[in-house]
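Why run this: before we spend reagent on co-expression, it is cheaper to look at a predicted model of the complex and decide which construct boundaries make sense. The entries below are exactly what would go into the expression plan.
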Amino acid sequence: MYSNNKHGKTFNYNKLWLKGISKENIIKISKFRNEDEEMLNFRLKSFETWKNMKEPTWIEAKYYIDYENIYPYSYIKEETKKHIKETFDLINISNEETERVSNIAMDLIVDSESILTTAQKKLSKYGIIFCSFKEGLEKYPELIHKYIGSVISPEDNFFAALNSAFFSDGTFCFIPKNVKCPIELSSYFRLDSLFGSQFERTLIVVEEGGEVNYIEGCSAPITKINQLHNAIVEIYLHKNAKVNYSTLQNWYSGDQEGIGGVYNFVIKRGLCEGDNSELNWLQVELGSSITWKYPSCILKGNNSKGSFVSLNITNNKMFADTGTKMIHIGENTTSFINSKSCVKDQSNSIFRSQIKTLGSAINSEIFSNCDSLLIGNNCKTQALPTFDIRNNLTKIKHEATMFSLDEEILFILQVKGFSIIEAQQFIVQKFVSDIVEKLPDEFYLEVKPILDLKIGNNI
Amino acid sequence: MKNYLTVKNFNYNSEEFNLVVENFIVNESEIIIIKGKNGTGKSFFLRQLFQPKIDLKNSIVFEKSFDELHKAINNGYVYIPQNIPIIDGITYEILWEKMKLKTDKIPNSLKKLRERVIGTCSGGENKLMEVTPWFENSFDILFLDEIESGLDEKNKNFVYKNIKDMVSKTKSSIVLVTHENIEFLNKVFENTKIKLYNIKNGKMTENE
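The model came back. Tokens follow.
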């Protein structure tokens, strides 16, 4: 279900609507989505903030976004939506009986709109809200207004402000007190419109003692035009809450010459507000021509835990600047970082982390590890960890390795009949195995063949 | 008599050693022994046969050429290095299956190690796990780089007996890089066609 094609064909029934980043278009979007005044004001205030910000220049990748000519909102026609729903019914994904026995719920977002959300009835029996952002605002405005921007404010950075002004669908999820979500929840994003952009907004709130496993997947068609995916994922965890958030990112990454592909500018952050809360980010980054993404944890509650486990594969001319931030505020907080990058061809991969412990975060523990494997002589990788430790009672362990493919093993495998590609694939599979083994079942079966294709330069 | 491999005008110069090979020939059903002191380039020479530096490429002519290294084994050219590195994730069983090798006659004492990861057995066991399957599978040339290292007398005799049998009973040839005493080799390979090449003063020549 997730990224299960080589980016496929587009639905070809998209309606591009609204051209350019402007105040007028924000008002039109808000009206089109039947939003209340408070939300419109949030958007407009964000837009004013954005206008006064400068686009970051520290990122090494070269890109250009023509904000006056991008299409911030697009959707597919009603008849196409109907057709997709019928197809889902046909393959028994969205019918009631399948939902009853299924162990996963899905929110399907194509371009700017959610077109299908499954298992809502089943989840509602537990008091769980799982719906599109639009539906969330219509039905639960007080929750949305309370939490939107509480973890990632529009003032946070240039792309946070842009998203806060123009966001469309993503998913809203609310797990009530002491409810452990009985099934996995997922959002699947399709950036289908060739000229469109996607301003995903996902908000997850987990009340005291609640738990949820969340899965996110995505894909985009092959196009010579650079598409923009500008997303915000905010997660708010109360006392004793736990969230496992897994992502398989497989946007189109451009061709061998670096033409086309998605600009994936994403802000993901969780606030472990309550004591003993826990947020675990797991990501597999396989696509996008440029990725700019740092899933982070603010560990405010005492004894709260955050982890970031990342597998990043780049080939051709991809550029990935990823990593994490771990901000320790509460006492006895722990963070765990394990990042692996496999870099090939002329691609460039940067691991960037910012670990900060405030004076209040006594007895905190940090483990950070970053490994990079280079294949070929033209690729580039950098590890840029920073530590800002403001108390003497923090334990830190940091490791980083960077190495090239073992030429001797490559030779031995070849004389034993493995082709060079098979040998490289084998070595990469071993390099990433400790992370791949931790993937949710839904991803596990898909990642290996995609990895093989990437190392074999078939995508 | 079929010619499997000819190396002519092989000329390599480096800071560590120089090696000139004017004429190195492997025909069918032969045991070729390459001897020389440490650091004279014996192992280097074997490796160059499979992965030659650009300027040495034209010096090496296999009967069945291979444009990519992994095709060598399909053409019947097998290389077993002096040191077997650990190849995490591949067991001998996986390897034998990949190479489509018959393994019926492998002694039980070795068969029980088949689920071990390559390179993780003892030094001698690693060598035996690599070489033994070839005693019941066909090949044109088996290149063995110091196969004797790590083997006790019993296993060394087992390997040499099988080498002799392969060469006597099939058209396979063996190229041995070795430090074994030549009298000993003459004895174990008695009644078998042996050619001895020596590397001395940067030159590899055949001892008549």
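The helical segments of chain B are 42-50, 92-98, 108-111, 123-131, 153-169, 182-188. The first strand of chain B starts at residue 3 and ends at 13. Bring this page to Monday's planning discussion.
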